[in-house]
Amino acid sequence: MNAAVCFSPHPDDAALSCGGWLALQAAQGRPAHVVTVFAGPTPPPETWSAFARELHRSWGDRPDPMAHRRAEDAEALRLLGCTATWWDYPDAIYRHPRYDSRERIFGPPAEEEALEDELVARCAAVAGELYLFPLAVGHHVDHQLLWRVGMRLAEAGRPCAFYEDLPYAAWEGGPQARLRELTGVWRSQLIDVTAQWEKKVAAVSCYASQFAELSREGQPLFEVLESYARLLLPGGYGERLWMPEGGAMDAIERARALYHGKDATHDFDHVLRVLALVRRIGPAEGANMRILEAATLLHDIAREEEARTGADHALLGAERAREIAREWGYPEEEADAIARAIAGHRFRNDREPETVEAKVLYDADKLDAIGAIGIGRAFA
To answer: What is the pLDDT of residue 8?
Structure first.
């Protein structure tokens, strides 16, 4: 079994974001295994979009850009003391016609449910004591996809941590904006990589094809990386991992307890399926995911009382959820927004979903009621 498995969206992300930590693992005699996920072969030129051609020029206009990037990655990871695997999933710029501009590659992701499900199964099959995934600072669509995969594994009980995506976290002054989008308060772990810093710099130096893309005017890549590492650990160099046990995972486990003994058609498995759906739909619709995820976790908490008294579970659950959200530390305006989303999610009442979060929850709840699952629920 690998001591740790680091899932990297592209050739360069692992070394850039947690290269010091990877070198530290090797120095301690527990080398990590890096899986670079979206490292598939360069497709034929006739399939390239104008945006892909623009990036190829930035990368040096090589005849086989992905083969070159994999070679850079192999040398960098060798310097860090890692073992490595490259999977053949295409980079987003080759994979989906939606991703045809810089704005879209760093925007709401396309619907790729089958790919996400496949990645969850494949990542889970890689043996490891700890799994690292990107936090998705910067919102690159491939990073967002792997973040969702990591969260699903964490919710299934796998030990997962999430690294700050660099240089995006440095450009944004930290991960705070990203963390505000997520449910709960995440716990951080600062790692002293001072002794490994030169190895990280040597590894990042292998990615010469990416220097233009990874630098901004007046902000050379290596200066940005060094400044951010020193900001994290004054007097040395630091990297930071984030764990959801203190926030998102606690919320899920607290919510699970509220569904103990519920009927099979609206048990917590249903809630988790709806949660997976809202995580796909919500970002594309511009939903506040912190509010949407909390509302999803609590949307059916009054089902049992409805069965017993005939009261509308959506309206009753909304009032209960408002109080629970306050207990969980949500401010008053967010607790109200959570309650509004829940109040409008039921098909059989006359309350229309009004907010984006309410509409996404309504749609996701109904999507779980169709198909094979819906047939099964009808006979439960």
So the answer is: 98
Largest CA distance in the chain: 69
- For residue 244, pLDDT beyond 90: no
Highest mean pLDDT of the ranges 105-114, 263-272, 301-310: 105-114
Q: Are 137 and 178 in contact (CB under 8 A)?
A: yes
Query: Are 172 and 269 spatial neighbours (Cβ–Cβ below 8 Å)?
Result: no
Nearest residue to 289 (alpha-carbon basis) of 136, 99, 173: 136
CB 314 within 8 A of CB 339: no
Q: Which residue has the tokens 């207990």?
A: 327
Distance CA(211)–CA(220), nearest Å, equals 8
As a whole number of angstroms, the distance between CA 130 and CA 101 comes to: 35
d(CA 131, CA 162): 8
CA distances from 166 to 24, 137, 235 (A): 18, 8, 20
pLDDT of 265 reads: 52
Mean pLDDT in residue range 213-225: 93
Which residue bears the tokens 């939606």? Answer: 98
State residue 372's pLDDT score.
53
- Greater confidence (317 vs 249) lies with 317
Angle at 377 between CA 372 and CA 380, to 5 degrees: 130
- CA 151 remoteness from chain centre: 6
CA-nearest of 307, 320, 293 to 380 is 307
- Please state, in angstroms and rounded to a whole number, the distance separating the CA atoms of residues 332 and 329: 9
Q: What is the pLDDT of residues 62-101, one digit of tens each?
A: 999 999 999 999 999 999 999 999 999 999 999 999 999 9
- Residue 304 CA to residue 294 CA, distance in Å, equals 19
Q: CA nearest 96: which of 146, 38, 54? A: 38
Predicted local distance difference test score (pLDDT) of residue 275 = 87
- CA 226 to chain centroid: 25
Q: How many Å apart are CA 288 and CA 103, to the nearest integer?
A: 20
State the pLDDT at residue 379.
Answer: 45
Bond into 220 cis (ω within 30):
no
Select from 16, 1, 3 the least CA-distant residue to 193.
Answer: 16
pTM of the model: 0.73
